[in-house]
Specification:
The complex is a heterodimer of chains A (227) and B (344). By secondary structure, chain A is mostly helical. In chain A, 57% of the residues lie in helices and 3% in strands. Chain A has a two-stranded antiparallel ribbon. In chain A, helix 2 crosses helix 4, helix 6 packs across helix 8 and helix 7 packs across helix 8 (200-217). The longest helix of chain B is centred in the first third of the chain and has 19 residues, at 36-54. Chain B is elongated, with a radius of gyration of 31 Å. The chains are: A mainly alpha (227), B alpha+beta (344).
Chain lengths: 227, 344
């Protein structure tokens, strides 16, 4: 079965909603092919035309930035990652052979920048969550804000999305990247495999583990999700 | 198919996405029907999975300055076809007399964050909707055009404001009509061009910084933008050496482009100044773009030290005639608004 488009609409027995209705149709995942105009721009950029690369940035900066934003949940970090990704892309533009789509190639670079950045942060942490702040008359442990809605919170879609996003941010970086690519960027398994340069089977099994981890993180909010 | 609860978890995603075989589905459903714990667990999983797919993921715009920041960094990186700003600036500060010792001694540019196709004449400042960059602001652009009527290679120079606040001098190049095949073109920013007729100048990175090189076909125009740093002294000119060679012909010219306002008091060209220094002084002081073509540069070797006077009472043409006219050079106004210096 091709993963490029998840086309099956026949629910299994345990996919019925609680009220017995059918689940929504599966999300369509369609890969964007490179247009002739984009190919021409890439060829020009590969010949050293930085004007063409400027045009490529215009075309792809929104996608790359939003991907980085979903990975980091921080606009400054996302901007830094997007910037580094395009600079790496510029330096490596001649290695793009057109075997993958340009978006796939850019997302691979962006993912690597993100993973490298997080690795650096782990090596050189800038803040400890249990850091003690000494005040003049007392000492207190820095309070880490708990964003989880209380039991009385109204379970709107917005709240559920925020809850999900917070849980996604708690996943290990590699799992987070996979969840973001599949569920938020709507990438197909095949494209994620190309981005991460691993077999499709590996993508599926790792994504399943990531979803199980996410389920455990959200177990406290099950009522929120069920509502 | 006999599977335990842990094995069942491994199949959650495949079951949800209908990727299991009929036998696997039967095994999965057989277990989950009889296991309350797995049924509840899978229900949570499936609910989360479905909501993940339906989560609101509206895109936001990239930050306004992101592209400019990227291009700025790219412009400052050493690259095979772009000259290194870092090296160039390092060169300036390593030789401060070029900037501070002489108001005329410094040219400045960071590179090439864009390109502009110029169709008009004159040294006008085009606008494009509130200062946004033109389509090719990040580097040289090649565009099909009608053949150039004649030499020189440089057809026009315009000033352009980039979105990141830098001014760009955009050079439009086109091979002379006498060339019927492509030529290899190299552009250098000159920090010191006294030996401007000497080919070895191009390998002296203290004096000539590579700005661009490549092949240029006869029927196209190349626009080469060069960004100018701020805080340069009055009377400064940007001096671009263009060198080309084809199977049948070679050429060389230098464009002197004023990039800062004229000083309040003009300084006469000193007796004994070289051709290069004299033209550079006039370009900067009289705010006049001047191009010295191949014939002028070739004649340098036989040209005696130049002397002459410039001053506030003269215009650029008079200044050029005063300094160069007595040495056999011809000075011709060009449609692009600059003077072309030749040596018949």
């Amino acid at each position: 079965m091709s993963d490029a488009i998840r086309a099956s609409t026949q629910p299994n027995s345990f996919q019925l909603k609680a009220d017995g209705s059918q689940p929504d149709a599966p999300v369509q995942r369609v890969r964007k092919e490179l247009s002739p105009a984009d190919r021409a721009l890439i060829r020009r950029a590969q010949s050293g035309d930085t004007g063409a690369f400027n045009e490529l940035i215009k075309l792809y900066e929104r996608a790359v930035y939003n991907f980085a934003l979903r990975l980091t949940s921080d606009s400054d970090d996302a901007s830094d990652i997007a910037q580094d990704a395009f600079i790496r892309a510029f330096n490596a533009i001649n290695s793009f052979r057109g075997d993958a789509s340009f978006t796939t190639w850019l997302f691979r670079i962006t993912t690597n920048v993100f993973l490298d950045e997080r690795k650096k942060r782990r090596a050189h942490p800038t803040q400890s969550l249990d850091e003690i702040i000494t005040l003049s008359e007392s000492a207190l442990t820095r309070q880490v804000e708990d964003h989880a809605p209380g039991p009385e919170a109204i379970a709107t879609d917005k709240e559920r999305t925020a809850t999900l996003n917070r849980a996604i941010q708690k996943l290990p970086e590699y799992q987070r990247a996979m969840v973001v690519m599949y569920h938020l960027e709507q990438k197909a398994y095949e494209e994620i495999a190309e981005i991460l340069e691993v077999p499709i089977g590996t993508v599926k099994s790792r994504l399943n583990r990531a979803r199980l981890a996410l389920k455990d993180l959200l177990s406290a909010d099950r009522e929120l999700l069920d509502s | 198919m006999n599977i335990n609860c842990e094995r069942l978890q491994d199949q959650y995603s495949d079951y949800f996405e209908h990727l299991l075989s009929p036998n696997e589905v039967a095994g999965f459903e057989g277990h989950i029907t009889s296991c309350d714990s797995c049924r509840a667990d899978y229900h949570t999983f499936a609910t989360m999975f479905q909501f993940l797919d339906r989560a609101e993921v509206a895109d936001v715009d990239a930050p306004a300055g992101l592209r400019a920041d990227i291009l700025s960094v790219i412009a400052q990186r050493p690259a095979a076809k772009l000259f290194s700003v870092k090296d160039w600036l390092g060169g300036i500060f390593a030789r401060p007399q070029l900037v501070w010792g002489s108001a005329l001694g410094a040219v400045a540019c960071v590179i090439v964050v864009g390109a502009l196709i110029v169709n008009g004449t004159g040294r006008s400042v085009p606008t494009d909707g509130g200062g946004t960059s033109p389509a090719c602001m990040a580097g040289p652009c090649v565009t099909p055009t009608v053949p150039a009527a004649a030499a020189p290679l440089l057809q026009n120079v315009t000033l352009k404001e980039g979105t990141e606040g830098l001014d760009y001098e955009v050079f439009t190049l086109h091979l002379p009509s006498s060339l019927t095949s492509a030529a290899n073109v190299s552009a250098y920013v000159l920090q010191d061009g006294d030996p401007v007729a000497d080919k070895t100048l191009e390998t002296d990175t203290d004096k000539a910084t590579p700005a661009w090189s490549g092949s240029l076909a006869p029927n196209v125009s190349l626009t080469l933008p060069v960004a100018v740093t701020s805080d340069l002294p009055p009377g400064t000119s940007l001096n671009l050496l263009l060198d080309w060679n084809s199977p049948n012909q070679t050429g060389r010219e230098v464009a002197f482009v004023p990039v800062t306002p004229a000083p309040s008091t003009l300084t006469p060209v000193a007796t004994g100044s070289s051709f290069y220094d004299a033209v550079r002084a006039i370009a900067g002081e009289y705010q006049q773009t001047i191009v010295a073509d191949n014939t002028a540069l070739s004649a340098l070797a036989s040209t005696p030290p130049l002397s002459g006077t410039t001053g506030n009472e003269l215009n650029a043409s008079d200044a050029l005639k005063s300094v160069l006219g007595n040495n056999g050079y011809t000075i011709t106004p060009q449609p692009g608004g600059y003077y072309l210096i030749s040596h018949p």
